[in-house]
Amino acid sequence: MKQHLNTMFVTTEGTYLAKDGQTVQVKVEQKTLLRVPLINLDGIVCFGRVSCSPQLMAACAEAGVTISFLSPYGKFRAAVVGFSPGNVLLRREQYRAADSEDRSCQIARNIVAAKIANSRTVLMRSARDGPCPETAQALQQTATAMLDPLDSARKATLLDSLRGNEGDAAAKYFGVFEQMINDPDSGFRFNGRSRRPPLDEINALLSFLYTMLTHDARSACEAAGLDAAVGFLHRDRPGRPGLALDLIEEFRPYLVDRLVLSLINRKQITLSDFETTESGAVLLQDKSRKTVLEAWQKRKQEEITHPFLEEKTTVGLLVHLQARLLARHLRGDLDAYPPFIWK
């Protein structure tokens, strides 16, 4: 089983990463700031103007360490990955399943149902822990209303109808997302999802952390021998990691949405941590990104019992476990893909 290793986040503009023996050498203005053993890393995420030596990229590819290049504010640009360790038979079976509407829908409906179920759990926990009875009632009512699209998703036989169920549930869920912020005077407002670009502070946080989760999911697909570009719910599109996007769906509420709410409710992030561009895009400032990334890494180190495997693991390894369970299903070892459902 894959060990829980660290992800190196490089946020300083002008940083140069090089290979020094079996370590990653981090240099700024020709000064070496630190060296990190390559064996301790499972990924490197570079923000903005960060460059890497060809020798380091080759070493990372051979070691299974994914290097992701993002814009200064978290938009994915490119990734460096090595050859997949998986065998060709698994990938051929993945392609066959993706080409079948029926098989794709069987996998995708489990993913969507888990996402809706986990979203409902976020609402119910916020209703239980929130300070306002009126808000708690609204959250409970929304969680109840999401039972209809959840039931429909479980019975869906077509991908288009399944996407409709997902969209219906998401509209209900994000319609009350702002009410899960405990302090009404915090200034945070949310009028639904806006992605390219994010138009408010909550969307900026969500999009940033969804990108981090997608980086982990791409690595999980490669480590399990799967093709990260070929999904079942997210269909083929050049440059889009469809399967990685499939895998993150069930984790969006549990891992990202809860962390965003926690950062705001604990006042670790405030409105002063953002900036607005001339185009209206709302983006995290540099120092604020570091705060969010530290919280992200800390969250991934927390322990949990996997609901299907009934084994203790860390939150950061969950997406890797799900990728391996999906691989087992495609090989025929499991009758159905068992998604992660938060209990």
Structure description:
- The structure is a single chain.
- By secondary structure, the chain is an alpha/beta fold.
- It folds into two domains: 75 residues, Ribosomal Protein L15, Chain: K, domain 2; 244 residues, Four Helix Bundle (Hemerythrin (Met), subunit A) (Up-down Bundle), CATH 1.20.120.
- The chain is 48% helix and 16% strand.
- The chain contains eleven helices and twelve strands.
- A four-stranded mixed beta sheet has the order 1-5-7-8. The protein has a four-stranded mixed beta sheet with strand order 4-3-2-6. Strands 9-10 form a two-stranded antiparallel ribbon.
- Helix 7 crosses helix 8 and helix 7 packs antiparallel against helix 9.
- It starts with 5 loop residues before the first strand and ends in a 12-residue tail after the last helix.
Structural class determined from secondary elements: alpha/beta
What portion of residues is helical?
40-55%
Give the biggest beta sheet: 4 strands, mixed
Number of domains: 2
Order of helices and strands: EEEEEEHEEHHHHHHHHEEHEEH
The proportion of strand residues reads 15-25%
Q: Which CATH C-level class of the largest domain is it?
A: Mainly Alpha
Shape: globular
Order of strands in the sheet with most strands: 1-5-7-8
Low-confidence stretches: none
- Tell me the name of the CATH homologous superfamily of the largest domain: CRISPR-associated endonuclease Cas1, C-terminal domain
Overall residue-averaged pLDDT value: 88
Count, helices: 11
Q: If classified by CATH, what would the architecture of the largest domain be?
A: Up-down Bundle
Report Rg: 20 Å
CATH topology type of the largest domain:
Four Helix Bundle (Hemerythrin (Met), subunit A)
Span from first to last CA?
24 Å
